[in-house]
Amino acid sequence: MLISAFPHFIIFVFAARVHAYDSTLNDVRIQCNETFPISYEYDVHLMNFGSFPDESDQTSMCFIHCVMDKTGMMDTEGTFHKNTVVEKLQGFPNDTEIPDLEEIVEHCVTETDQEELCERAYGFGKCLMIEEIQRHGEAQEEE
């Protein structure tokens, strides 16, 4: 099992781990979880493998879209706002610095081609997770 700072950091955005320093994101997560409930098992799977166990589960994908939309990382047209994504994700958790986050975000913006908004948000989040695991997973696993 890969242990990396980035999966915890992405879980913050998409699932259930929000630190008190940003109550707005926590409020958004709570709001989105009321409309699109996501299970603890899905959180864990996303954190460990970069994806949901059932990739056809629209509710979980729409949870991610809801959070990304309400935080300004993605608009209602499906456009990702790269600077906002980096701003919202950099420094989590515990001021963890992802040195190439801008490059990862740029890569995933160009790689994400889904049309449907929930699938698009999930595809982007999955890309972020997988890309970070591939780039940094082994080095951070040893820590």
UniProtKB/TrEMBL annotation:
Keywords: Signal
GO cellular component: extracellular space
Example of a GO MF term: odorant binding
A Gene Ontology biological process term: sensory perception of smell
Keyword NAD: no
Lineage: superkingdom: Eukaryota
Pfam families: PBP_GOBP (PF01395)
Signal peptide from the UniProt entry: 1-20
TM helices/strands, residue ranges: none
Protein name: Pheromone-binding protein-related protein 4
